[in-house]
Structures are given as structure tokens and as C-alpha cells.
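Try this one yourself first.
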């Protein structure tokens, strides 16, 4: 455990020197604060709370931005240090390869988690100052922040898997961008096209549920957009989670599995990789 914490601390210090922590925190805070003030504006005759509007907006922001930041943090975590010769030096110390992997992952997750908590925390303070006291919406906001950290952990783990599989940083960067495009944009476009073409003949409700769980971005979206009645109403997905049979427990379990599986695969591959 001590070795993991030491390596995690090194990653945190490297992130501070490279301004990763400051840059990601400032970016998320600026965008979250902007969306919070927009969400606090009058919401019309439907009387949806400003906090619910902000949750929907921040969830959409997180789906695009958090995976990209996570992949940029992690895509060269292994291959980059191998190229620079730093990995061979690190492994000369009495530390196991799985400890190196978990330590680097913990450090990067701490960087991303800090950026999300502080950035979205600024939005929470602004909403509190504006007088939003809807307790159910605040619970949904807390779920959104926690699941955003989990979403970042998923794409950190995928980035580590990419970094372990490839042999140079350029390839790792290209694959990471391809992964982001696939899960964030292309998967849902392909799924929508399939549903339109199929017309309900083959893709049943159960098959659709499995397809949604096969994309962590979709699981994250469903978890947050069905977390409270106000959020569901504004997002236009009232009862979607219930009708789909995908409850919060199942969605959280799917997200945890999405983080554990790539990290375990990356750890196993790194253990056999020649440095």
C-alpha cells in the first residue's frame, strides 16, 4: 500500500508541475459556473427548478469533456515512460508492476476527482447562493458529481489499457481519440440508426438494455437523467429508467465493472510487457 501511495503522490506532483490540475479545475469551474447561472434563469411555465436544469446541462458537459480529459491524462502513462526510460528506472526499485499501475491510476484519478469536485463545487455554491433548496435535486446533483468521477475513472482505465497495448506515444494518442469518438459520438449514432432500421423487429427492450450498458457514457447518462423527477421531466425522459428496467444499482454496477475490467486487463498486460 505504501508503494502505491508514493507513486500516486508522484503523479499528483507531476500533474501540478504540468499545470494539469489547475487547467482542468479552471476549465470545469468556468463551464459549470456558466451553466449554473444559465440554469438559475426563469424556467417557464413548467416550473422546473434551476438546479434540475443545471444537472441536465452538467451531465451533458461531463459526457463530452470528462472522458476526453481522462484519456489525455492516461494515454501515455505507460508507453510514454517506457519511451523515456523512466519506467525501467522505476521498476529497478522494490515495487511490483501491479503497484505501479494502481499507483499511477490512483494519482490520475485524484487529479481528475479534485478537478470535478472543485469545478462542480463552484456551481453548487452558486446555486446555493441563488436559493435552490430542492433536497431531491441536491441528491441528484451529488449523484451526478460522484458518477462523473466514476466516468473519469472508466476512461482513465481505458487509457491505461491503450497505453499498455501500443508501442509508441503517437499511436496511443490516435487510439485514445478514436476511443473517445466511438463511445461519446459514434456508438449512439450507430445505435439510433439500428433502431430506426430495425423498427422493433429484432432489437427488443432487453437487447436495447444490453446495448445501453455496453457504453459507459449511456449508462452514465441514464443514471443522471433519471435520478429525480424534476431532472427527468426537464430532460424529457420521465420514467425511462423504470421502463427500461435499468435501476440505479444496475447502472452503478455497470459503471464500476467498466472501470475494473480495463484496469485489470491493463495490469495483466503490463505484467508481461518487456520494458
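Now uncover the answer:
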Amino acid at each position: 500500500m505504501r508503494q502505491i501511495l508514493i507513486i500516486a503522490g508522484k503523479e499528483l506532483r507531476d500533474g501540478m508541475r504540468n499545470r494539469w490540475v489547475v487547467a482542468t479545475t479552471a476549465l470545469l469551474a468556468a463551464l459549470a459556473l456558466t451553466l449554473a447561472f444559465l440554469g438559475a434563469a426563469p424556467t417557464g411555465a413548467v416550473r422546473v427548478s434551476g438546479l434540475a436544469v443545471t444537472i441536465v446541462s452538467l451531465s451533458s458537459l461531463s459526457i463530452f469533456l470528462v472522458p476526453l480529459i481522462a484519456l489525455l491524462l492516461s494515454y501515455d502513462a505507460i508507453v510514454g515512460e517506457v519511451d523515456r526510460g523512466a519506467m525501467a528506472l522505476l521498476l529497478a526499485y522494490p515495487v511490483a508492476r501491479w503497484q505501479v499501475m494502481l499507483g499511477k491510476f490512483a494519482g490520475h484519478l485524484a487529479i481528475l476527482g479534485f478537478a470535478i469536485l472543485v469545478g462542480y463545487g463552484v456551481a453548487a455554491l452558486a446555486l446555493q447562493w441563488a436559493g435552490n433548496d430542492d433536497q431531491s435535486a441536491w441528491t441528484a446533483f451529488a449523484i451526478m458529481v460522484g458518477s462523473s468521477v466514476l466516468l473519469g475513472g472508466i476512461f482513465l482505465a481505458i487509457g491505461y489499457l491503450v497505453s499498455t497495448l501500443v508501442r509508441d506515444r503517437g499511436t496511443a494518442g490516435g487510439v485514445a481519440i478514436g476511443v473517445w469518438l466511438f463511445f461519446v459520438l459514434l456508438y449512439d449514432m450507430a445505435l439510433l440508426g439500428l433502431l430506426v432500421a430495425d423498427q422493433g423487429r429484432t432489437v427488443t427492450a432487453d437487447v436495447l438494455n444490453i446495448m445501453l450498458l455496453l457504453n459507459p457514457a449511456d449508462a452514465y447518462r441514464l443514471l443522471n437523467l433519471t435520478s429525480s423527477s424534476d431532472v427527468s421531466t426537464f430532460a424529457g425522459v420521465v420514467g425511462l429508467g423504470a421502463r427500461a428496467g435499468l435501476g440505479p444499482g444496475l447502472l452503478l454496477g455497470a459503471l464500476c465493472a467498466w472501470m475494473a475490467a480495463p484496469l485489470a486487463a491493463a495490469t495483466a498486460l503490463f505484467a508481461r510487457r518487456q520494458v
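Discussion: The mean pLDDT is 82. The first helix runs from residue 2 to 17.
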